[in-house]
Amino acid sequence: MLKKSMNNIVVRMLMRERSRTLITIAGTGTLLLLMLFLAGIYEGVKNGSTGFIRHSSAQIWACQKNSNNLLRSSSFLSNSTAEELGAVSGVKKVEAILRLLATAEIHNKNITAFIFGIPLESELSSPPIVRGRPVPNLGEIILDQSIVKKYNLDLGDTIRLNGDPFILAGISRETNATVAQFSFITLTNAEQILGFESISSFFLISVDTTIHEKKVLDDLKQNYPELSFYSKEEFIANNLDEMKTGVLPILWTIALLGFITGSAIISLLLYASAQEHREDYALFKALGMSQSRIAVIVLRQALLISFGGYVVALCGYVVCSPILLAFAPEISVDINREMCMVLLGISLLLGCIGSFLSVNKLSNVYPTEVFRA
Amino acid sequence: MPNAFPNNIIVAHSLSKIFSDNLTVPVVAVRSLDLEISTGEFIIISGPNGGGKTTLLTLLGCMSRPSSGSVSIINTNVLSLSQKELSRFRMKNIGFIFQTFRLVDFLTVRQNVELAAHIAGTTGLEASNIVSSLMDEVEISHRANFYPQQLSGGEKQRTAIARALVNNPAIILADEPTGSLDSSSGKIIIRLLRELSKERNTTVIIVSHDERIYSYADRVLRMEDGAILVQKK
Questions:
Q1: Beta carbons of A373 and B54 less than 8 Å apart
Q2: Pick from B114, B127, B175: which is nearest to A371 by CB?
């Protein structure tokens, strides 16, 4: 009953300045939505930059010494080395893939394509597929679904890479790292575009199931010190690290600014309210209400606003994400339940911080103020 | 003649309150005041503006601490209590009535009265029954679900009286309770306070300029320049 009575006071105090409260909730919600989108984009980038590796059945990835990820490190390897690696005890299969950048012409528009050349009938290097073939034939290409959507393409359509026609044979998923969308053609076609033969960027290695993967990895490292070898997990982690150093600081900065702004908005509302209704709080104190209970009233107001903002953010996401993806399909946004729970925690923290100033202000309200006419 | 008020509920000795902020000349609001008030007494404190009446009320109401002197209320040395203990003491033992009513405008009459009960920890059916009974007593039940802005001045003050009584305090302090009322409403309110005081044996201390109500008092204290000059029975 006491709780109900206090809730009653909290809600009524907020609703006394309905417009201001609703604007604050909307403002807080918008900032939380921004944070949700940033987190979603980061998750999307994470998944998009590692989906190809995760989907591959290769347990070991090899590249040039000091090279460690798909996106932002150079790696040039001789194809003959792949044959040598295939002969190492415990190695079941080795596939060479070639990474290159090329100009793709789609509907008379030129874009820079991030291309992987993979072997014909590849077993280790096919990307996760939405529709079509998982491994391209000569003259065929697999594109990420965001490119397909953005340019309104369909299986069988033709695009040009460095002037040569390629037929869209497959549509992949989890191959959109936002900063680059992966495309897949045959290794032969990739070599033709590059203008060199017998060169690869990475070797994908599968291990015989009867032999321990770690032992094979150690043997490869020991016998081929001029190369870098990574377990699948290490290679995924390397790519994530690359994303973290490249993308995360920007996202963190924006999210932090959003958090500070959100706290300031809530603080402003509650501070103004505390200032305007100082006499009500003085009355509460005169009636014997303790400072801690007054702090709880303010905190509840703040939490109610921030929770309202959280609900607005979730609803905003449901409404805005299809619109965003319609305009910019290359932006990959992945939201999951954990992220929503973290955002709830952030919004409640926002409320706690936002209430601090007002609670402090109200500690200086004295019950004698009720005697002022 | 037997003493009608055998027990002192409030005893103040050499009570002083000086306001000073280091920038302006200190103001002595209450000056070495000695005061004894008995249980069930109905007292009016009169005097000019700035005479220290309201400051005395805040001292007796445990809302502020004196600069010097001692105050004992219900045999408790209130100066020895912490801020939190003072709040609790005030909540349990003292009810307040203000000139401008000080009702919470977003709560109904019933909720305003319940608020004081809830703050004191009385909740549920018990609080509801007490509030209903009090609203009957002060004849405001028919406005239970009205908001303060829908009430007349007299009705607002009745609500304030019910709120002041809800925790069954031993003392009620009223600051100009008739100040915002017309003459007839003012008299009705004072009569009501007087009746409740006698029925409940509650000590009532009223600060007022309104000479028309002095006749209801057991004692009228005149305060000027922070000191009690005259006491009339």
A1: no
A2: B175
